[in-house]
Amino acid sequence: MAPEDQHTEFVPKAAFDALKLKYERLLRAQQYTPAATTTDDSTQQPAYVPTPKDAGPKPITIEEYKRRQQAIKRPLTPPPREKRKRAGRRFQQRRAKAILYHQLNLSTSTDTKREVQKQD
């Protein structure tokens, strides 16, 4: 019996030819490496090498694995909120008076409290 007619014993010829064609395509796909493509004369991309289907994940070192597994450390308390910047008229007047008290170094106790007038 000729080797071309072996397919008739187990599988129909059409199915055998389809499987053979798929197998040949698979072999060609794994061997395919296109030439480097050029966009300009100055820039040249490296040749594309396809990854074979049976290639598994890349092996990593123990240090890299531990670094990936570390939890992100967050502070226990949330950061303090920013104080609201008050810009009202009364608040500005009180602030100006407080600055004057500070500059003149006046006592703020009740017995010696004096009203400070702002000099314009």
Written description of the protein model:
- There is one protein chain.
- The relative contact order is 0.05.
- The radius of gyration is 42 Å and the shape is rod-shaped.
- It has 120 residues and is mainly α.
- It is built from 4 helices and no strands.
- Residues 33-120 are annotated as: Disordered.
- Residues 111-120 have a biased composition (Basic and acidic residues).
Key structural traits:
4 helices, 0% strand, 120 residues, rod-shaped, mainly alpha, 39% helix, single chain
| Helix/strand order, N-terminal first | HHHH
Q: Determine the number of helices (DSSP H or I, runs of at least 4 residues).
A: 4
Query: Average pLDDT across residues?
Result: 75
The structural class is mainly alpha
Radius of gyration: 42 Å
**Which percent range fits the helix content?**
25-40%
The biggest beta sheet reads: none
Q: What share of the residues does DSSP label as strand, in percent?
A: under 5%
Number of strands: 0
Describe the secondary structure blueprint for this structure.
Blueprint: H1 7-10, H2 13-31, H3 62-69, H4 89-104
In short:
The protein is mainly alpha-helical and 120 residues long.
